[in-house]
Amino acid sequence: HRSTRPNPQRKTDIMLTMSTSTTTSTTAATGRVDASRARPRPIILDCDPGHDDAAAIILALGNPAIDLLGVTTVGGNQTAEKITRNARSVLRLCNREDVPVHQGASRPLLHDVEVAAQIHGESGLDGVELPDPTVPVAPGHAVSFIIDTVMAAAPGEITLVATGPLTNIALAARIEPRIVGRIAELVVMGGGFHEANWTPAAEFNIWVDPEAARIVFEESWPITMVGLDLTHQALATAEAEEGIRRIGSELSEAFLGLMAFFRRAYKENQDFDDPPVHDPCTIAYLIDPAIVRTRRAPVRIETHGQYTTGATVVDLRGQAPENVHTQVATELDHAGFWRLMTEAIAALS
Ligand code: RIB
Ligand code: CA
Question: Is 0.85 surpassed by the pTM of this model?
Fold first, then answer.
């Protein structure tokens, strides 16, 4: 699935030509041995761009600690077709169309399609004119790409990041259960233990496909849930945006154009003065776990509540039992997060 020709911009090629020594380490979350910390962490980003998903793609591409192997798309903020085009446009904007985009599920396992046009607009990335993609959608379903990539890599090598509804991730675990024990960890933007946004009890990604979320959270893989309790701290303040404005590039201007639309949408719909940029918090956690404080806790997904379907029920009472495979994000280093975002945009400009 990945081009074999060295791409001077691919961080792995740069790192390997620098003949870095490899060291092994274990992730805080999982205790699993990472193949090597000296090399960028290889990830697959399953997403529904979406303004904040676009920011996650930019952060993953712009930071040397991450090697974005591929983007998989899922219907969520907009239809799967619009989402897939948006992902390809963002990669074109970042001059990284070498990263393959595989389209995934166009609807939830059981529920009807519900998009978030009031937040992301009719295109899913309203606010700027993004460049038309020049590379077609990669052949093969997103779920096949996830399974094939994880099974071809060494155990503990690949990290999955999901910033949209969890339909693709659930299908992958059901079609090839061996991936559950083979990934380094799964990082999910979704849910919340004291915060909700789409209903009084549920966050959008979990609400759209609660059955998929239940399948995912009931598997034994290590999961870091980066929910609204954390991402509502990732506000695009005027000061954060000023640091990005000083870059003065096509990418920084496009990013700020997206944030301007996002700002208006969040003010009108959820009365935020500054928009919460949810999805890149997952990438920031992988780059520097010190920026995202976490605590281990059991997480259950409500799928039958008359008023609570889609809720992530997180048990924060006392110490988590030893066999808990989930942790939830609690506190963000706001300055550190926006430093990473700014550096990534500058690195890609
Ligand atoms: O609730 C916020 C989440 O839902 C974000 O991932 C946003 O992009 C949407 O997918
Ligand atoms: Ca998203």
Answer: yes
